[in-house]
Amino acid sequence: MRAIIVHGGAGDAKRTEEIPERVDFVKKVANYGFDLLKSGLNAVEVAVRVVKMLEDHPLFDAGRGSYLNEEGFVEMDAGIMDGSTLSIGAVAGIKRLKNPIELARLVMEKSHHNILIGDGAEKFALENGLEFVPPYYFYTDRIIKIFEGTYGDTVGAVVLDGNKIVSAVSTGGTPKKHVGRVGDSPIVGSGFYANSEFGAVSTGIGEDIMKVILSFRISLYYPNYSISDAVKKCIDDLSGINGHGGLIALDKNGNIGYSFNTKGMFFAYMKDGQDTVVGGF
């Protein structure tokens, strides 16, 4: 069984005119990822490629679309986990890298560490030939206009290639965040998690998500509950502390789960036996 689910963030889409384009794009990303799976690429490669697509699109809070912090520059986080080996790679406080998810993968595959931050992480990226961009790359008209925004919308993907599950996440964080703030996204178990049974990625207000360890929290309910019901119970728990966010997941059999307690969440999924991609907000 092969399956993929992606998200483009949970929250209140204040710029409602963007909703159709954003829904169409996450559906395009899921469809592209599933085509890659059918071509034989493994889940790590597929997860990185689809998250890069979301990082490169200016309408999502990751990569080029990252929100600016209180001083007007980006600080991006990303993470990835291979459920078959429990290998982890995460980065935080990235300012100049085009695609932080690529660096998270490098940390997982080419370092002895699980997480690197700030200048040290960017030094590791430079040593490994990743692409850097100038600051103005991130200063899109949209980001400047919504500098006063009130929520974050991390991007992420969970991929099953028939052998293993991989979860990947990337974010620019919350608007006008304190310099040095790190949210849930690069924190394993909170922003992302994968093992041999299921994989998950969270989105929303990171400070709330970390309190309930949202992505790993599925293990409290699954497999006694279906992955879909387990995800819903996790969001109920988030609501119980007045937290706000969303969660996507899939299990080893390709079953899909997603839920949110915000006004919406951009999502799309595709799996074997499914004729067309499903997505929405």
Give a topology summary.
Blueprint: E1 3-11, H1 19-38, H2 43-56, E2 76-82, E3 87-94, H3 100-110, E4 115-117, H4 118-127, H5 141-145, E5 155-160, E6 165-171, E7 192-194, E8 198-204, H6 206-212, H7 227-240, E9 245-251, E10 256-260, E11 264-271, E12 278-280
Parallel strand pairs: 3-4
Antiparallel strand pairs: 1-5, 1-11, 2-3, 2-6, 5-6, 7-8, 8-9, 9-10, 11-12
Helix pairs in contact: 1-2, 2-3
Organism: Caldisericum exile
GO molecular function, one term: peptidase activity
Binding site for substrate: 181-184, 203-206
Helical element count? 7
CATH superfamily placement: (Glycosyl)asparaginase
Mean pLDDT equals: 94
- CATH class label: Alpha Beta
CATH topology: Glutamine Phosphoribosylpyrophosphate, subunit 1, domain 1
CATH architecture label name: 4-Layer Sandwich
Radius of gyration: 17 Å
Helicity, as a percent range: 25-40%
C-alpha geometry: globular
Q: Assess the beta-strand content as a share of residues.
A: 25-35%
The count of β-strands is 12
Structural class: alpha+beta
Question: Main sheet?
Answer: 8 strands, mixed
* Model regions low in confidence, pLDDT < 50 over at least 5 residues: none
- Termini gap: 26 Å
Number of domains: 1
Reading side by side through the largest sheet, how are the strands ordered?
4-3-2-6-5-1-11-12
The sequence of SSEs as H and E is EHHEEHEHHEEEEHHEEEE
